């Protein structure tokens, strides 16, 4: 117990910048954009490393040296996570999660390793679009600042 707590504390000390948690709503069968962007711009593709994880630390998507990698992707996210490569150099590392289901609800994290930024996104899944109107985001995010260093 003490070892686990110390490990978490040590990890958090190594991260220089943490952004505020963002809450996003989606609907069963729909899609949603999970925002993640850096406050630094003009990134060089070969320097970009971003790790997307879910609440259980399972891999959703990795960007390694500016290229998408699904090599260690958890099977539940196969063909369900999309990125916006044309946005990487501008510091936008958001992902689009498609075909949402109940098990997707919870916290996601986006760790931008080259700038030591960590973003957390809380995903809420609703039964249908009729409950609250359609708040599902289906388009590419533009210059979102949800994950800025602090």
UniProtKB/TrEMBL annotation:
<keyword id="KW-0393">Immunoglobulin domain</keyword>
<dbReference type="GO" id="GO:0071222">
    <property type="term" value="P:cellular response to lipopolysaccharide"/>
</dbReference>
<keyword id="KW-0325">Glycoprotein</keyword>
<protein>
    <submittedName>
        <fullName>CD276 antigen homolog</fullName>
    </submittedName>
</protein>
<feature type="signal peptide">
    <location>
        <begin position="1"/>
        <end position="20"/>
    </location>
</feature>
<keyword id="KW-0732">Signal</keyword>
<dbReference type="GO" id="GO:0006955">
    <property type="term" value="P:immune response"/>
</dbReference>
<dbReference type="InterPro" id="IPR013151">
    <property type="entry name" value="Immunoglobulin_dom"/>
</dbReference>
<dbReference type="GO" id="GO:0031295">
    <property type="term" value="P:T cell costimulation"/>
</dbReference>
<dbReference type="GO" id="GO:0007166">
    <property type="term" value="P:cell surface receptor signaling pathway"/>
</dbReference>
<dbReference type="InterPro" id="IPR051713">
    <property type="entry name" value="T-cell_Activation_Regulation"/>
</dbReference>
<dbReference type="InterPro" id="IPR007110">
    <property type="entry name" value="Ig-like_dom"/>
</dbReference>
<feature type="domain" description="Ig-like">
    <location>
        <begin position="29"/>
        <end position="126"/>
    </location>
</feature>
<keyword id="KW-0675">Receptor</keyword>
<keyword id="KW-1133">Transmembrane helix</keyword>
<keyword id="KW-1015">Disulfide bond</keyword>
<keyword id="KW-0472">Membrane</keyword>
<dbReference type="InterPro" id="IPR003599">
    <property type="entry name" value="Ig_sub"/>
</dbReference>
<dbReference type="GO" id="GO:0042130">
    <property type="term" value="P:negative regulation of T cell proliferation"/>
</dbReference>
<dbReference type="GO" id="GO:0009897">
    <property type="term" value="C:external side of plasma membrane"/>
</dbReference>
<dbReference type="GO" id="GO:0042102">
    <property type="term" value="P:positive regulation of T cell proliferation"/>
</dbReference>
<feature type="region of interest" description="Disordered">
    <location>
        <begin position="131"/>
        <end position="150"/>
    </location>
</feature>
<keyword id="KW-1003">Cell membrane</keyword>
<keyword id="KW-0812">Transmembrane</keyword>
<dbReference type="Pfam" id="PF00047">
    <property type="entry name" value="ig"/>
</dbReference>
